[in-house]
Amino acid sequence: MKNLDQKEAFDVLRKNKIPAVKSYAAKNEKDLLKIFRKIEKPVALKVISEDIVHKSDSGCLKININDEKGAVAAYKEIVNNAKKQKAKVQGVLLQEMLQGNEVIIGVKRDPQFGNVIAFGLGGIFVEVMKDVSLRICPITKKDAEEMIEEIKGKKILEGYRGRKAVNKKKLVEMIVKVSNMAENNSKIKELDLNPVMVDEKNAAVVDARIIYE
């Protein structure tokens, strides 16, 4: 099995026309500064390594970076933290930071049922609330709509305390595309898109974990 690094995972998403946050790979500090000067701030930095699964817990994710000094310091800290865990580091990914609600879309291949797709609120919500809906792939647009309606936290996506409702059409499209990607690529054993940021206009993947068999 192979755990794709972040750059590889995002390449797979792009090939399948699944929207993702703008991301740029830096192999060294020179690359980092060149990219940082062009990208919209603030930015997030995360390690590119197939050996690091939980970037935040590993100290390999830094967010809200606004200046060059902070970017270089974050780069060094991320690389050092990864090397302490004996991880092979390909570089660091710079990403524009998006606003909106966090959701998760995941797929696991079940020995009996085949690919099973999950949808729920992302970030800490999926760990704490265990609030997800499931379907056997492939799914239809109607299936995806029902999955969104089934979660207990759906009201968060419908708008609250002055926040606008998310673009459910874009979210439905992404859920269906993820199902199709898993069905059409027999190499995919498991994938975890968490978080996917969704607002009133768009939905885009921010972090992706894809395991090839």
Biggest sheet statistics: 7 strands, antiparallel
Any idea how many domains? 2
Order of helices and strands: EHEHEEHEEEHEHHHEEE
First and last CA, distance: 4 Å
What is the number of E strands?
A: 11
The CATH topology of the largest domain:
D-amino Acid Aminotransferase, Chain A, domain 1
| CATH homologous superfamily caption of the largest domain | ATP-grasp fold, B domain
pLDDT < 50 runs, ≥5 residues: none
Report the top-level CATH class of the largest domain.
Alpha Beta
Topology, please?
Layout: E1 2-3, H1 6-15, E2 23-26, H2 29-36, E3 43-48, E4 61-65, H3 68-84, E5 91-96, E6 101-110, E7 114-121, H4 124-129, E8 132-136, H5 141-150, H6 154-157, H7 168-184, E9 188-198, E10 203-205, E11 208-212
Antiparallel strand pairs: 1-11, 2-5, 3-4, 3-5, 6-7, 6-9, 7-8, 9-10, 9-11
Helix pairs in contact: 2-3, 5-7
Fold and architecture overview:
- This protein has helices at residues 6-15, 29-36, 68-84, 124-129, 141-150, 154-157, 168-184, and strands at 2-3, 23-26, 43-48, 61-65, 91-96, 101-110, 114-121, 132-136, 188-198, 203-205, 208-212.
- With 213 residues, it is α+β, with helices and mostly antiparallel strands.
- The protein has two domains: 22-96, Dna Ligase, domain 1 (2-Layer Sandwich), CATH 3.30.1490; 101-212, ATP-grasp fold, B domain (D-amino Acid Aminotransferase, Chain A, domain 1, 2-Layer Sandwich).
- The strands form two sheets. Strands 1, 6, 7, 8, 9, 10 and 11 form a seven-stranded antiparallel beta sheet that branches. It has a four-stranded antiparallel beta sheet with strand order 2-5-3-4, sandwiched between helices.
- α5 packs across α7 (168-184).
- The longest helix is centred in the middle third of the chain and has 17 residues, at 68-84.
- It is globular.
- The mean pLDDT is 94.
